[in-house]
Amino acid sequence: DILVDGKVCDCDIVVTCQVGDPVPLQVKLTNWSKHSVGPFALTMMPYQDYQNGVHNYDLQDAITFVGSNTFYIDTVKPSKNSVYFGSLLFLYTGDFYLNIKFHEDNCSRDLPLSWLCLPSVHIRATEPVA
């Protein structure tokens, strides 16, 4: 489950936020398998989609993370979850997307080496209301 500014995100939702206000992020990984999984590194990767096949990941002048954009998850037991919190700060207006990528760091390979949480989260940064 992914929440941006307290709103559940899926492929049909565009979350709107204001430039200059920290936007809280919450990612909850639930293990629905019968075996423990992990360890993982969870990485949040913002980008802009130019709608021509080009994704711009070089956004250090437009978006910053409050805290880290990578979290380490030890092990998630069956039917349990692990929740991680962070914040984004948008410095400019625009439409941005957020990929959430899990990198497995376990030799048993219960999951593929790396997988993305798709579809990407769509966030629209707007001018602050005066």
TrEMBL record:
Which spans of this chain does the record mark as coiled coil?
Answer: none
Give every Trs120/TRAPPC9 fourth Ig-like domain span: 16-125
Q: Could you tell me which Pfam families the record lists for this protein?
A: Ig_TRAPPC9-Trs120_4th (PF26283)
Top-level lineage group? Eukaryota
Which is one Gene Ontology cellular component term of this protein?
trans-Golgi network
The record's section on InterPro entries has:
Ig_TRAPPC9_Trs120_4th, Trs120_TRAPPC9
Enumerate the PANTHER family for this protein. TRAFFICKING PROTEIN PARTICLE COMPLEX SUBUNIT 9 (PTHR21512)
- In its UniProt entry, what is this protein called? TPPC9 protein
